[in-house]
Structures
1.
Amino acid sequence: MSSDATRPQPAKDEVAIAVVGAHLSGMPLNGELTSLGGRLLETTSTAPDYRLYALAGSNPPKPGLLRVAQRQGHAVEIEIWALRMEAFGRFVAAVPPPLSIGTLRLADGRAVKGFLVEAEAITGARDISSFGGWRAYMAQAKTPAL
């Protein structure tokens, strides 16, 4: 892991936001970040305090990240993006339920704003935590069964 001095930081007029699914680089909703001038700071992971679910009926497909008891979940790969304050407000205002923005704990102890899901939304959703992230889950979902 890089130290704070070498890790890319948001500028004074920016907010860092962690994305976990359809907003990741190369995924269908990434353009929502880039069109607002978002810039990728780093790829990292959460603390092992989360479960990741494939939400039923979302289009494009999206995951939901649910915080659980400390060390009772999995570390999940995320990307941290920087958005200017005004763009952050516009981005967050457009987040549809059951998703929300909360504070995520990272593996290195930092806290950053990021996507979470309402607990009610995981009813009937598939727990995909063991994949370690949305990108890994989507890659296996596209691989034909042997």
2.
Amino acid sequence: MASSFANHASIALELMEARRDQQRMLLLEDRARIARDLHDHVIQQLFAAGMGIQGVAAGLDERRADQLEDVVARVDEAIRQIRSSIFQLTPQRFSGELRTAVMEVVTEVTPLLGFSPEVGFNGPVDILSDPELTADVAAVVREGLTNVARHASASRAQVTVTGTTGRMTVSVTDNGAGLGDTGRRSGLDNIRLRAEQRSGALTIEDAAPGTRLTWSASVV
């Protein structure tokens, strides 16, 4: 009887633990979904609204333009707060190192740009990436956005990271004047070397207007 009771108790405890794990998983998945929706929809809509307000401000007198610039500044602050909420909402097991690393770089470079770049992810980038590839992608995003801030005089930039079963691709596009003669380009040389070491490539082309930097690497 004692042995039978112990077996039943053990089964009951296992069922309770399994039910707790399932509930925890559902909660984490729901938080991850909310975080994705905030990033993919709310932030992009706020960004578009800010761009629209800046366009209207360009045709107004200085006093009214300054008032609208204050509105744009508040929109940018709302975007920063939402991004902070995304980091808090997204559990580590679903956030993925690559997405987190890219968003951290974007947050870091945004003050240099003076505006919030658009960011998009296509494919299972977190599953495909290892720590070394994540570091490479972060370096590419940092170099691309830093060049936009220093040389392009752009008002808009977009970062897209796409992962497939065989390749990881990073694209940084802006609507500025182009890189021009930037002198030393050790940063671009470094990310080109990172691509070549992974059987990939780096290309920089005229996006008319602006510039498109495309970096690709093999996913092993």
